[in-house]
Amino acid sequence: MGRNGLVLFFFRSADWCPYCQAQLIDVNGGVAEIEKRGYRVAGLSYDSPEILQAFTVKRHLTYTLLSDPKSEVIDRYKLRDPQYPPGSRAYGVPRPIIFVLDPSAVIKAKLYEESYRNRPPVTVVISKLDELGGRS
User: Fold this and answer.
1) Residue 9: predicted pLDDT
2) For the chain, which ranges sit under pLDDT 70?
3) DSSP symbol at 44
4) Which of 63, 101, 111, 116 could cross-link with 41 by S-S, CB 3.0 to 4.6 Å?
């Protein structure tokens, strides 16, 4: 959590989802600008810590990826994608969404697209932080 809050994004998989992989790389390019505004960045998926660590190293990510292998946090926010049944490789994945949280973890903004194939670019996230007064 930064002094102004956290940009927390939920993504399907760093292992097999090319749209997520592109998003993870895009977000990495905006981390410095987000942190200048007093926010930290974290991504969360159902991937194992090993998968997330391997992607972090391979792509030189400068922010934290969090593992929710039982989709407990995903379910707490009611983000589980219902189209994948138990036994499916994608069972437990979240719908992709970005939350801007204040220091008390209250959701101040939600950024998302209707299709999992599209993600708000990091420039949109930065603009939203500016709109919320995140400039320092």
Assistant:
1) 97
2) 134-136
3) E
4) 63
